[in-house]
Amino acid sequence: MDAASVVFTIGGMQITSTVVTTWGLMLLFALGCRLATHRLSVDQPGLLQTALEGSVLSIKAAIDGVLPGRDDMLLPFIGTLWLFVAAANLTGLVPGLHSPTADLSTTAALAFIVFLSVHWFGIRSAGPKAYLGHYLTPSPVLLPFHLLGELSRTLALAVRLFGNIMSLEMAALLVLLVAGLLVPVPVLMLHIIEALVQAYIFGTLALIYIAGGMQSREAADSRQTQPTSDKKGSAP
Amino acid sequence: MELNWTTFVLEIINFLALLWLLKRFLYRPVLQILAARQAGIEQQLASARDSEARATAMQQQFASRLADWEQEKAAERRRFDAELATEKERQLAKLGKELAAERERSAAQDANRLATQRRQLAGEASVQARQFASALLGRLAGPELEGRLVQLFIAELDALPEEQLAEVRAGLDGQGQGVVSTAFELPAAQRQQVSAAVASRLAPQLALEFRVDPALLSGARLSLGAWRLDFSLAGELAFFPEAASRGQRQQP
């Protein structure tokens, strides 16, 4: 079983099944969302509209719980992460398909996007000087450790998702080969739970990393105001 | 477990494309619907608050108007009570005046009725007195009484005031004829006394005619044209109705 088999090539560029599955998911998302949001009603929402609104509001509430007041800015990115990772994780349940997140290239790409988005939102929120300055706090000596932490958490983000999803698919395949047709059903149910949990973990970790980057300005501000208040407090 | 850089790059592009697609077809429409619904709710809340404010204002206005009405009602009631008291006093005063006028009118009617009764009684008494006097004097009438009455007639003629005698003389203008009526045939001596008294007091050339008139009952009456000097019982009895009528006229 090769999870990333090349399906076709375009100008020497190998298009793997991971990319094709991702395109399929993108097509489903686009068509589904277009059809679902084609006729939204303000006064009489249907069942599907209510589910969509509930999902979006839940994502907003989760973001607002971590970063109050920033839910509108982070909703597209974090929401897309959750939805795509969950859908990609669950794709492995469809016979003949494998999860794009069982491919290290996909999880690495997602982790790289998260890595870039942390700096992007951090710089947008705090400015380049304040944001980059937080790598030198509390001491410039810790700069290598900060950089190492950035790399290691990004790597962990990619490997964690890849390892979990790949192992789930592998376990289901092994049980299916060894035990028979219906025996892997509990394993597949575990796959559903694990897929949703891993999607939640991936999105939540991305949100926490972004929140850490955006709150670097507030940390810098508090460090700047702390000595001033101490001076005021020690004044005779 | 190997990293395919083509897949890596394409997945990055795919994710960014999916991000754009979901933002375009999912987040934006749903957020717009939620915002529109929130705006509608806010509008309804604002409308409800506005309605509540208007209702509160109307309630306060109604309470204020009700209080004003109560004050106006109390003032109107006081004014009505005052007018009622004034009208009552006026009606009582008017009734008092009418009662006083009625009392006066009743007293006047009583007085008139009493005066009428008195006049009737006086008239009846006069008639009875005349009848009694006529009956008594009719029984006393005779030549002796007439002789005495003729003497009183002569004395009365002598006692007449000169102004009245002058008026009688002016009426005679030195001529004329007088008539002396008696109830009985007058003796010659008394005729001469009467003629002498008339000649001395009125006119010496006046001719006197002596007549007998039993209606006089007793006494004498001198008639000179329209002027008369009566000293007879009939003349005196005729005094009763005149006295009664004078008495009635003198009654209040």
Explain this structure.
- The complex is a heterodimer of chains A (236) and B (252).
- Chain A has 236 residues and is mainly α.
- Chain A has one domain (6-38, 47-222).
- Helices cover 75% and strands 4% of the residues of chain A.
- Chain A is built from eight helices and two strands; from the N terminus they run ββαααααααα.
- Chain A has helices at residues 17-36, 47-66, 71-91, 104-126, 128-133, 143-179, 185-214, 216-234, and strands spanning 6-10, 13-16.
- Chain A has a two-stranded antiparallel ribbon with strand order 1-2.
- In chain A, a hairpin with a 2-residue loop joins strand 1 (6-10) and strand 2 (13-16).
- Chain A is globular and about 65 Å long.
- The model of chain A is unreliable at 227-236 (pLDDT under 50).
- Chain B is an alpha+beta fold and 252 residues long.
- Chain B folds into two domains: 1-116; 141-250, no CATH class.
- Helix content of chain B is 77%, strand content 10%.
- In chain B, strands 2-1-3-4 form a four-stranded mixed β-sheet.
- In chain B, strand 1, helix 4 (188-201) and strand 2 form a beta-alpha-beta unit.
- The chains are: A mainly alpha (236), B alpha+beta (252).
- The interface between A and B is large, with 47 and 32 residues.
Write the layout of secondary structure elements.
The complex is a heterodimer of chains A (236) and B (252).
Chain A lengths: L5 E5 L2 E4 H20 L10 H20 L4 H21 L12 H23 L1 H6 L9 H37 L5 H30 L1 H19 L2
Antiparallel strand pairs in A: 1-2
Helix pairs in contact in A: 2-3, 3-7, 4-6, 4-7, 6-7
Chain B lengths: L4 H136 L2 H17 L2 H11 L4 E6 L5 H14 L5 E6 L6 E6 L2 E6 H5 L1 H12 L2
Helix pairs in contact in B: 1-6, 2-4
